[in-house]
Structure formats: structure tokens, C-alpha cells
Design a protein that fits this description.
Layout lengths: L2 E3 L2 E3 L10 E7 L8 E7 L17 H14 L2 E7 L1 H7 L1 H15 L6 E5 L11 E4 L7 H24 L5 H4 L5 H10 L11 H6 L4
Parallel strand pairs: 3-6, 6-7
Antiparallel strand pairs: 1-2, 3-4, 4-5
Helix pairs in contact: 1-4, 2-3
Length: 208
């Protein structure tokens, strides 16, 4: 799915050329706190951006530089959110897929096909889909969705940090760093922690 030019890899365009296709990805699946975010992005067939890649492979500075480029050049984009409370009720896999569905339903253009990062997805009504493991490093629209999901989730966690600074979410964004786990041990959990992620078990495994 890639072509090589000048010793650099470039992501492929649409999986199904010449139809309206949306790439979908999520951010925050492995966190102990906060929502899971997902994005759906429809890019024009001629869209090119040599620096766009899986958001996990990009620096924070590059991700935020890419966000307005994606938003301004996409045909449509949207972000969906599933809260920590909802995650506890339906589990993180279903929550990640629900966040993608919520993003898709907000698109101003109805896509004819969906390409999904990962290997699991619940069919969206009346739109066929394909799943791709590591799709965010294979297709531009999925990479674009990964950047939007990641940056908007980071913004949200930074805003929560203002209310709950003891967990250092401005740095860890809710991921299970030693700093975050130590804060849970010292201060207990917040209303934004995912109870079903066995946070208290995480505490007993801390090594100081």
C-alpha cells in the first residue's frame, strides 16, 4: 500500500479510489483516565502531505502543525467522544468503536466507504468498511484521523489537568505512567478514571 520515493515512505491515498472514503482512528484506548476520542476524515484524492504519518510516530509539535492542514484541506472531518463512565459500562473496545461511529455520524458528507485502523469494527449502517492493522501508517485518511483524535484528546486532558493537577495529566494525558500511578496511590481516583481498568490493582504493583 506504499510507494517509495527518495528514500522516504509515503502513505497511500484511498483504499477505494474515486469514491468518497473516510478514514477512522481512535486515541486514548490504553489510558487509565479520560474519554476515548475518535476521528473520521475524508480527504480529496489528490491530497498530499509528506510529513503526515501515524500520530504515535510524530512529535507533539508536528501533530499540532498538521491539524489545521488536515482540517483546511479535508472534504469533511469530525471527532467523536465516549466518556470514561461509558467505557466502564461497555468496555474499551466497544467504546473505541462507538467513538468512531459518533465521528462518522457528524461528517457533513456521507462517505461511501470506511477504512478503519485496527482489526475490529461494528458495521456502520449502510456504509461498507475494511479494517487494516496499522492502517494509520498505511493510509493518509487514517493517519489524518489519528492526528485529529490524538490532538483533540490531548487538549481535553490538558483542560482536565486544570481541575485535577495532582495526576499530572498535562504530561501523561491519562496514560499509566509511574507518575500517574503514584498520584492514584496518594490521592485516590477522580471521577474521570476508568474504574474497570483495575486501578487499585495497578497501585499494588507500584515499585518505589
Amino acid at each position: 500500500m506504499r510507494r517509495r520515493t527518495d528514500n522516504a515512505y509515503h502513505l497511500a491515498g484511498n483504499f477505494t479510489p474515486d469514491i468518497m472514503e473516510a478514514g477512522c482512528d481512535e486515541a486514548g484506548r490504553g489510558c487509565l483516565a479520560g474519554p476515548v476520542f475518535a476521528s473520521a476524515v475524508i480527504l480529496p484524492n489528490d491530497f498530499q502531505c509528506s510529513s503526515l504519518n501515524d500520530s504515535k510516530q510524530l512529535s507533539e509539535k508536528v501533530r499540532y502543525k498538521l491539524r489545521p492542514i488536515i482540517e483546511q484541506n479535508s472534504l469533511a472531518w469530525a471527532v467523536g467522544i465516549v466518556t470514561a463512565e461509558e467505557i466502564d459500562h461497555i468496555n474499551i473496545l466497544n467504546a473505541s468503536i462507538l467513538a468512531m461511529h459518533r465521528a462518522i455520524e457528524q461528517l457533513k458528507i456521507i462517505p461511501q466507504h470506511l477504512i478503519i485502523d485496527g482489526n475490529r469494527f461494528h458495521p456502520y449502517p449502510n456504509i461498507p468498511h475494511h479494517c487494516f492493522v496499522k492502517g494509520d501508517s498505511r493510509f493518509l485518511s487514517i493517519a489524518a484521523a489519528s492526528v485529529l483524535a490524538k490532538t483533540y484528546r490531548d487538549d481535553f486532558m490538558i483542560s482536565l489537568h486544570e481541575e485535577y493537577p495532582v495526576y499530572h495529566w498535562i504530561n501523561n494525558k491519562g496514560y499509566p505512567t509511574k507518575e500517574h500511578q503514584a498520584a492514584i496511590l496518594q490521592h485516590g481516583i477522580s471521577p474521570h478514571h476508568r474504574i474497570t481498568f483495575h486501578l487499585m490493582e495497578q497501585q499494588t504493583k507500584l515499585v518505589f
